[in-house]
Design brief:
about 120 residues, flat, single chain
């Protein structure tokens, strides 16, 4: 990969990290607080539980993304960025441009996704 491409992807990763850190999913705490006044009946309680679960899922997704971004930035620093963690082959620039924190080539990413789907089905 050319240094110019690497610099472009590093800048993209840094911008993504800033967006995640400055986003409301990680900083908002309003949706996590519940008072007894908020729950006068079972329907309100169910709605509150669903809203909290959605918030937790969104926070989890953002934290996972943040970890992946930090790992990609670390790989840039140690010179392994753009290499598939499974086979060591080069990850294409087009894939990295679309998902700069990718750590698997397309073949291994698809394989991991199929495995995850199998696990969820038979879970």
């Amino acid at each position: 990969m050319k240094q110019e491409q690497l610099d472009e992807l590093k800048a993209k990763l840094i911008k993504m990290k800033e967006e995640v850190l400055n986003g409301s999913y990680l900083t908002s705490k309003e949706d996590l607080h519940v008072t007894s006044d908020d729950l006068p009946d079972e329907a309100d309680l169910a709605t509150n539980v669903i809203n909290q679960q959605v918030s937790f899922n969104m926070r989890h997704r953002e934290l996972t993304k943040l970890r992946a971004i930090d790992e990609a930035l670390h790989r840039i620093e140690n010179g392994t960025y753009g290499e598939c963690e499974e086979c060591g082959d080069s990850i294409g620039f087009k894939r990295l441009n679309n998902q700069p924190f990718a750590n698997l080539c397309i073949e291994h990413a698809e394989e991991a996704e199929r495995e995850q789907m199998r696990f969820l089905k038979h879970g």
